[in-house]
Inverse folding.
């Protein structure tokens, strides 16, 4: 019996990718389940907070922002919230990001596994993202990962978290309860 191999997407097709909620892992589309209302609300609140605090210093985007991890094989990850400083790019980014953001924030959904989140963080670190923050709404904890450091700092929603240098806040103060 002959097996047909799935056609793999390539970097050359990056501008022709279909709309939808997915990531590309080693050239293959991996569908993502839609997020729930709470996830979207936290994403919006955190993104709005960062935009207000950092609007003159850089760019903030939300909503499974595509980030290029590798060209061959094609690997694109989606991030809930990203911040890119104007030091990295003077021009407002468009399309799939091909530069590493200064900060990536992920809101953990009930269907996320630890393995999935760890692989995603590793991918972000591979391209030079200095900090990844995971917000876990169900346990009301925040996990701060810094590239090159072995330890993970864990905070409660009522403790100050530093997003980028000079910008600290308690998640409970950012997120509408």
């Amino acid at each position: 019996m002959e097996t047909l191999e799935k056609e793999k997407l390539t970097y050359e097709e990056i501008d022709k990718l279909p709309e939808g909620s997915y990531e590309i892992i080693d050239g293959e589309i991996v569908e993502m389940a839609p997020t729930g209302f709470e996830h979207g609300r936290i994403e919006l609140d955190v993104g709005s907070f960062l935009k207000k605090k950092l609007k003159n210093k850089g760019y903030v985007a939300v909503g499974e922002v595509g980030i290029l991890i590798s060209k061959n094989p094609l690997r694109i990850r989606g991030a809930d919230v990203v911040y890119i400083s104007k030091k990295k790019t003077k021009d407002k980014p468009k399309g799939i990001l091909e530069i590493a953001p200064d900060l990536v924030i992920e809101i953990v959904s009930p269907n996320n596994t630890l393995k999935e989140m760890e692989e995603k963080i590793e991918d972000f670190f591979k391209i030079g993202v200095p900090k990844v923050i995971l917000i876990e709404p169900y346990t009301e904890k925040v996990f701060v990962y810094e590239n090159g450091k072995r330890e993970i700092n864990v905070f409660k929603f009522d403790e100050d978290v530093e997003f980028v240098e000079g910008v600290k806040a308690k998640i409970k103060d950012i997120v509408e309860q």
